[in-house]
Specification:
Oligomer: single chain
Strand order of the largest sheet: 3-2-1-4-7-8
Strand content: 15-25%
Structural class: alpha+beta
Radius of gyration: 25 Å
Order of helices and strands: HEEEHEHEEEEHHHEEHEE
Number of helices: 7
Number of strands: 12
Distance between the termini: 74 Å
Amino acid sequence: MASFGYDERTVADWERRAGQHGQAVHAALVQQGKVDLQHVQADELWVKLVGQRLWLALALCVPSRLWLGGVLGASRDQRLLARLVAPVRAAGRSLAILVCVDGLAGYLGAFRRGFRTRQPTGKPGRPKLVPEAGLLIGQVVKRYAQRRVIACEARVAQGTAAAVAAVLAATRTGQQINTAFIERLNATFRARLAPLVRRSRALARREASLEGLMYLVGCLYNFCTVHASLRQRATAGCGRKWQERTPAMPAGLTDNCWSVGELLHYRVPPPPWEPPRRRGRKSSRPRAISWVLRPWRVVLC
C-alpha cells in the first residue's frame, strides 16, 4: 500500500535500488569469511521469465539458517554450480565443512575444485592447488516414476560415514544426510517472490531485476525475519519467556533483529583504497644517457 498511487517506473526504480543495496549489504556483512559454516546445503530451482527460463541456485548455512547467496543461470551446468560455490567459500571461516546436495553430479566437481587452496612452493609459476582434506560431501538421490518420488537414497560422496554423522550430531541437523533445510528455504523464496511461484502471471522480464529482488528477499530473511527454530530462552527478569532471533544473530553478524528501515538505511562502508595498477612492462635495460654539449649549457637527454 505504500507504493499505491505512484508511477510504475518509480516503483521499479525503488526495487532496483533496494536490490543493489541488498547486494552491497550481503557482500559487506555475510561474505567476509567470518561465519562458522559447519554444515551447508545447496539446491536449485527453475524460474520462468517472459520468453525464457532460468535456474536459481541457493546455498544455506544449516546451523544458523543463514542464506549464503544465490546465482542465476540459463542452464543447470557446471558454470552455474561453480558460481554458487564462490559465495559459500567467501562466507566461511573454514573449508572443512559438510555439504549436502541432491543427486546432481556436477556438485561434486564444483565443490572439490572450489574448495582448493594454494600451496606456495617458492618457485616461479602458478602455485599448486591442494584440495581441502576436511571437506565432506553427502548426496540425496531421488528416484522418480510418473513425476513422483518413489525412492530416496542418502550416500556419502566424499569422506566417511562416521565423519558425516559426527557433524550432523554436533550441529543437531538430523540423523542422516538430508536436504530438508534448503528445501524449506526454497519455499520461503517462492512465498516472497512472485516470479518463483510455479503457476503465476507475475513473471519477471529481466534477469537483472530478478537478481536484485533475490538479494532484497535474502537480506530481509537474514536480518529482519525471526526464525522459530532459532529462539532461545530469555534471561530472567526481562519480562518474556523467549528471545526471538534472526539467522544473522546466531551467525555472529549482529546482536539484534533489524527492522526493514534499518536494513535499507544501513551505510555500507566503502571498499579499501588500492593503488592503481601500473600499465606497461617495466624495462630491465638501463636508461641511455647522452650528453649534448652546447656553448651555453649541458643538456642531459
